[in-house]
Design goal:
alpha/beta; Stationary-phase Survival Protein Sure Homolog, Chain: A; two-stranded antiparallel ribbon; 6 helices
């Protein structure tokens, strides 16, 4: 099996080392693991691509490349340049430092990398590690992902739904903020919504007198609705959420058509 891995925390991120190990386990001794990851951190870039300017790509080692672009850029670079059209069998994106549950999904470069792979017709899984008080004193805060990542990916490959539709399925996996031994298992969970967490801005005045704005986030440990991703993560479960890039509100189509006809 040929696996392409990427992330949004950058080529030197510790979560990428965890993902490398997971990918090597899945690929097996006869397989290949190729890395194309951002040269610098790209957290929060979502599914953006560098459409208006070129990006530099550099080979750092055997099957290891850094690109000055987003995770979606890296997937495109991997498929069409690094692999020279020799398509991967699987794209893994992560392991992100921090959760990509609930509304974080919409901003996540980790999700963006997996989404681009799905749009290119390649099976894809995004993996993220929820952080919290129980992960702070571990030898690695990625312990849950390290201990259970291979099993999760292998289970999805063996038993998951993999369709060939235009907006094909990909998967968003979030490991709970607990030690590896305390993970309860996997649960399929819908994307939740934190009703009390919003992004905002905080202004600061520089020594030169100019105003700069920092983007600010909100609390990450307030549970979402029962059974949705954040809620099951905080209860010690790995959440598995099937996703598509299709943003159509299908549940509203019939009523809107009736109102506008």
């Amino acid at each position: 099996m040929r696996i392409l891995i990427t992330n949004d925390d950058g080529i030197n991120a510790p979560g990428l080392e965890i993902l490398q190990s997971i990918a090597e386990d899945i690929a097996g001794p006869e397989g290949e693991v190729w890395t194309v990851a951002p040269a610098f951190e790209q957290s929060g870039v979502g599914h953006c691509i560098s459409y208006t300017h070129p990006m530099m790509i550099a080979k750092l080692g055997k099957r290891r490349y850094a690109a000055e672009g987003s995770p979606a850029d890296c997937v495109l670079a991997g498929i069409y340049d690094v692999l020279q059209g020799g398509r991967p069998d699987l794209v893994l994106s992560g392991v992100n430092r921090g959760n990509n549950s609930a509304e974080n999904v919409l901003y996540s470069g980790t999700i963006g990398g997996a989404m681009e792979a799905a749009l290119q017709g390649v099976p894809a899984i995004a993996l993220s590690q929820f952080m919290g008080p129980a992960t702070q004193d571990l030898s690695t805060p990625f312990e849950a992902a390290r201990d259970h990542g291979t099993q999760v990916v292998r289970t999805l490959l063996d038993k998951g739904l993999w369709d060939g539709s235009d907006y094909r399925l990909f998967y968003n996996v979030n490991f709970p903020p607990v030690a590896g031994k305390d993970v309860k298992g996997m649960k399929v969970a819908a994307q939740g919504y934190r009703t009390d967490t919003f992004f905002g801005v905080e202004p600061h005045i520089s020594p030169s007198g100019r105003k700069f704005l920092w983007i600010t986030g909100g609390p990450q440990h307030h549970p979402t609705a029962p059974g949705t991703d954040v809620a099951v993560n905080l209860d010690g479960w790995i959440s598995v959420t099937p996703m598509r890039a299709d943003l159509t509100a299908h549940d509203a189509m019939a009523e809107l058509e009736a109102r506008l006809s």
